[in-house]
Amino acid sequence: MADLAEEMARLLSTRLDSLTDSLVADILAENPGYHDAALVTLAELRRSCRTNLERVLQMLGNTVPRGDDPFDAAATTGTRRAEQRVPLDSVLRSFRLGGRVIWRGMVQMAKEDDRVDRDRLLDVATTVWTVVDEASSAVATAYRHTELQLRRLDEHRRHALVGDLLRGRGREGGVTEQAAAELGLPADSAYVVLVADLAADGTPGLAMPQDALAGYGVRSIWEPREQTLVGLVALERRDVTVVLDLLRGGIRARVGVSPAVPGLAEVGVAHDLALLALRTLPADGKELALLDERLPEALVARSPELADRLIHSVLGPLLRLPPAERDVLLPTLAAWLETNRSAAATAARLYCHRNTVLNRLRRLEGLLGRSMQDYEAGLALSLALIAYSARGTDTHAQRAP
Questions:
Q1: Model pLDDT for residues 50-79, shown as the tens digit of each residue
Q2: Which of 56, 78, 238, 367 could form a disulfide with 143 if both were Cys (CB 3.0 to 4.6 A apart)?
Q3: What is the span of the domain harbouring residue 215?
Q4: Edge-to-edge, what's the strand order for the sheet holding 228-234?
């Protein structure tokens, strides 16, 4: 039976031009997206059809030139169509149409030759579709391999574009427009930038943020960068609070949020501010920090050297106390400032008598040399406590002069 299939394939090879015309017509009629989207020109489609038909007929006819890969045409087609972003289903459909054209040609030949009975023709059909399936498999393998390479290139390109924006290159001519086009983001929308730490298990500190936003039509792009996940979120006239609420359910680590900036060109500045907001949170925190809501903490975090000096200058005498006394006075001072200098509210918070609070405050005044009622003293003490809390009690107890 292989002999009959070989004989018919060799005869069909002499009708290659008409077979090509039939296949091109079938593809245009039954698989129009292949050509209508201008992904493949008509001339290229015809060349590809002819080459693949010829190779399949050579495989059926056992006439593949010595040293040639029988599936080279199929692999070339798979690679090229992946590069052109033609959907794989559409490519494979065209290959099935090619198999049908070959089979239709053989059926016509059988009708013209009384020696070919139905049983022999059915056996030929098995051979034909086996070869077509093998060629289709080669197409799919080459397509997926190329698709993977292109995806890696796309990811590299996207990573580079986001990196340019975060470095402030969006202010250079043409960079913003190019980035917006390739990343699928609006150039002139207001943006916020989010920076999320990694969670304890090494996963991003925000779970599937792009999907969470896209479900409500919010455009964004997210990139892992230097042990963080960075998101560029286009507000497009939305209130930032509404947008952030869509992400709160996925918080698994600390997340810093920049103020809104007026366009994609300004996300470099926003990224710096989001990183600053992140640094205002405890290292083991699992919350979202908006910079504008944590400006005192941000002032302290912006200059670690000045923060250290503030701690030592303002709280130094307190931090040098024995732990037993320090661990009583320090919470009292924090509660006093947090309750707007109310002895009664401080006593209620600390579960002690009001007179006990007043006694501790007198001790603090003598120790720190500052009036507990003075505005500037209160401001300095508040900032020093913020800096101290951000650094860690044990560390500063050891470093205090």
A1: 999 999 999 999 999 999 999 999 999 999
A2: 78
A3: 175-294
A4: 220-225, 228-234, 191-197, 255-257, 288-290
